[in-house]
Automatic annotation (TrEMBL):
This is Lipoprotein. PROSITE patterns: PROKAR_LIPOPROTEIN.
Length: 176
């Protein structure tokens, strides 16, 4: 059986238009945000990560920190401010007593009750511009990360008046 194949150039030309129309109303990312992501996100995991607890103890002598963390914190459902590139992270360092699963509640665990220190399990990360000001976008928009994502972050650390580690982000690796 011999079939004749017809060429329909209009079909090929309509494909890109269909893709655009079927793509929906997704939000586009501003060029300055894409440039910032490119500047902050590193292609390989930085070496030398330490725990939040260790970083709190060392930042007075050496503010440069590298941490493996999880985005979000069980005590703060709103992990990122809407108009500020500041977000909470929890300990994610493998083997740390503070790297607990989502179903573990330290307030009901006999071991954690006597050992747990909130300030050793949580840090606050700030994405800042060249002048040191926190960017006026949500961290979710700037970094395209979600709660529970595991990251290795680099930055300049300091301990605030409440004893919590604050990190001015200089580099970020998103774990697959």
């Amino acid at each position: 059986m011999n079939r004749r194949v017809e060429h329909r150039p209009w079909l090929l030309l309509s494909l890109p238009l269909a893709c655009l129309l079927l793509g929906g109303c997704g939000q586009s990312v501003a060029p300055e945000i894409l440039a910032l992501r490119e500047q902050l996100i590193v292609p390989q995991e930085p070496q030398g990560a330490i725990t939040i607890e260790q970083a709190r103890q060392q930042v007075e002598d050496d503010p440069n920190v590298t941490l493996t963390v999880k985005v979000g914190n069980r005590n703060f459902p709103e992990w990122s401010a809407e108009n500020q590139a500041t977000f909470y992270v929890s300990e994610g360092f493998p083997g740390s007593d503070y790297n607990v699963g989502p179903d573990h509640d330290p307030s009901t665990c006999p071991f954690c009750k006597w050992k747990w220190k909130e300030e050793d399990s949580l840090a606050v990360v700030h994405v800042v511009d060249e002048s040191g000001e926190v960017l006026p976008y949500s961290a979710e928009t700037v970094l395209d990360v979600a709660p529970g994502s595991t990251l290795t972050i680099q930055g300049d650390g300091s301990v605030d008046e409440s004893g919590f580690l604050n990190v001015r982000l200089t580099g970020l690796f998103v774990h697959p």
